[in-house]
Amino acid sequence: MKYTPAKPPITGETLDSLTERLREQGEPTFRAKQILEWVYKKRARSWDEMTNLPKPLRAWLDATFDFFPAKLVLGKQSTDVTDKLLLELSDRSLIETVIIRAPQDGVGIEHSRKTICISTQVGCAMACAFCASGLAGLKRDLNAGEIVAQLLNVCYREDALTPRARMELASFDNIVVMGMGEPLANYDNLIRALTILNAPWGLGFGARRITISTSGLVPKILKLADEPLGFRLAISLHGATDEVREKIMPVNKAFPLEKLIPAISAFSEKHGRMVTLEFILIEDVNDSIAQAEALADIARDLHAHVNLIPYNTVEGLPWKRPSVQRQEDFANVLRAVRVPVTLRREKGHDIDAACGQLRLKTEKDRDALAV
Ligand code: SAH
Known about the structure:
The chain starts with 14 loop residues before the first helix and ends with a helix. The chain is built from twelve helices and twelve strands. α4 packs parallel to α5 and α6 runs parallel beside α9. It is α/β, with parallel strands linked by helices. The strands form two sheets. It has a ten-stranded mixed sheet with strand order 1-2-3-4-7-8-9-10-11-12, sandwiched between helices. The chain has a two-stranded antiparallel sheet with strand order 5-6. S-adenosyl-L-homocysteine (SAH) binds next to β8 and β10.
């Protein structure tokens, strides 16, 4: 399960770690800043573009680091709102990164707000009953460089559309860690990657625009609360009582609601920000009025926002989304007690790009592409 690439990705280096490597090589340490500037600000696509570096240093970099730990194999646009990037890692594992655009009224698509959904593992060990990502179990964790490279790939693709690229900024507005995998089960790589994305020598991307979604690993939620960078937190609740939740989420056995809810509360107290509770609506599983009432109580106690997501059907799984009327009835129970609630009309259904259900199709795509 542990995978060590032949060459570590350059996108997994921090300014400190790269400075140290250069020092060991007898290189001047200011080179580290120059190199990272080429990677993140100038979006260089090869070592040779780094023209202010001596040739022998470029050769050493080439021999030492992998420039592209995640290579684009296929970019598939669904509608004008969702793009799915299929990326291949150096062990040939496939992962997906999704670009979700929210078009703004009256302006072109180049001005849309872009949210990027990233993956943190190949597969997933959580085994949530409704989710495609966990069907085949966990293959391995992504390393920090592979997580960061997903965002750089988005920049390569989007730079042409946005004037922000000319200012050497990220070509997107928000990151949601809601793709394949359980991010808090790959904690150290996740935090290292997000630190790189946030750093002024990296993409300089604000921590408050990064949302980490978890199935509810309580000790890691408490650890995350102590991180200096204030990331946003979303919890995949999906059941408002232990009875319902543990039927569909095995993680609830180790961390039932009586442990999970205080951890969420501790997180929001530390950060003073609203946490999001995600609740997939699955017909006859968790969509009763009694569940809505129990959810309303939890959300009110936590001062949380609720995101209702009509279930996306997964090939091979029996679950269905409730009727629109039933979705509305459920939402209305929350609205009646003034819980802030969003009933999501999901984007990207037509290209299987809904976050969290990415893997299955990916393997089939590869077969079809013969890559
Ligand atoms: N492991 C993390 C992040 C990945 S899942 C977590 O559990 O939060 C991202 C979100 O997509 C989760 O809320 C997950 O429950 C949801 N999801 C998974 N399968 C889905 C499906 N078929 N339809 C709708 N949402 C789904």
